[in-house]
Amino acid sequence: MKTLSEKESELRLTVALPDNDDWRLLGGGEEVIQELNEVLVAALEFAKATDRTWGGIADEIFPPLAKLNAKYPNIGILESDAYTTVARFFAINLTPAIYDYLRYYDGAEG
Q: Most Cβ neighbours (<10 Å): which of 16, 22, 80, 109?
């Protein structure tokens, strides 16, 4: 058996990426998924670089997502399902404690 800390450390060594089913967009294809995942991976690298605030992490995620939303309008990049995917990604790859912050992020806290 592993301790919780050991398991958590082990999980941080890998990265799980969302696929099309996770994002649940209204279109866009693999190119959009790749661009979205690039945003998430860059923000994750930022978050892991040192102890970052959740607001700082959100600032690395949501402005780039807003740019992608402008590039690919009407496919749901800034909709509820996408926020759920962002929150799940960081809960799995960084810490479960960040889930609610990112899931219900509205930019006002930043």
A: 22
**Residues 25 and 51 sit within 8 Å (Cβ to Cβ):** no
Q: What does R_g of the chain's alpha carbons equal in angstroms?
A: 14
End-to-end CA distance of the chain: 40
Please count the structural domains in the chain: 1
Q: Is residue 74 part of a domain?
A: yes
What per-residue confidence (pLDDT) applies to 9?
Answer: 80
Give the C-alpha separation, 64 to 4, whole Å.
Answer: 33
**What is the number of helices (H) and of strands (E) in the chain?**
6, 0
**Cβ pair 99, 91 in contact under 8 A:** yes
Residue with tokens 């749901």: 76
pLDDT of residue 8: 78
